[in-house]
Amino acid sequence: MPHGGRRPGAGRPRKSPPRSSLDTTILRGISEATDRSVDELVSLGPRCLLDLIRHRGLERLVEIEDKPEASLLDFLKTVTLPPDLPTEPTTEPQVEVILNNDLSVNGIRYGPGRCEVPLGMKAGLEHLDRQAEQGRRMSPVWQDQLFARCP
Questions:
Q1: Which of 37, 43, 74, 78 is the most exposed place for a label (fewest CB within 10 A)?
Q2: Amino acid 58: pLDDT
Q3: Shortest CA distance to 100 belongs to which of 138, 145, 133, 122?
Q4: Range of 28's domain?
């Protein structure tokens, strides 16, 4: 083969051996139970096999090979996903904040005065309040009004 040439057969997809009907039935059953595609399950196969060997040892492989097909299919009928347990919404503790300015965060208005806010928002609201106060003080309109009041 000359330099830079292409090896015959390079780049073609590998042909995988056909699956047995039992394997196909098992993969389809697990796919329906877990909402994963058959291809995803096939790609998980080597990792699951490694995990099985790690936790149960190589002897477990011999036991799996010797199991009758009927018992595997019976077990497959019982496989279901565990039900989704309802989760309680986590409530963040509320703290009281005193704001000098009228602020709006995500369309919710806060201040002026005392208001109850979640603990995680307290520091951000106080920072926004300080920024608003500093911006008001630096405003030329506010400075003109201040000097107009002073004799």
A1: 78
A2: 81
A3: 133
A4: 21-78
